[in-house]
Specification:
single chain; 86 residues; mainly alpha; elongated
Amino acid sequence: MDNTNQNEESQPTSPMSKSQAQIENNFTYHPPNDDQIPRYKALRSLGKDLANAINSYTPDSREKSLALTNLEQSIMWANAAIARNE
């Protein structure tokens, strides 16, 4: 018995698999439409307000840096959710 292809996954029958379609979507520029721009600005403004609060109320530390970095990521992913899914 020939086992050469036993561990290989079969190729999807559709021209583009779901994961391939997601890769295409995730790495494609999505120009904003008029409805999205105010929401991007609102999310960035809210993120900036929280970043300023974290900066004011917490001592300089690794934890503060992580909080600010993760907040930055949160706003980026929220904006990506709009861009990639609308």
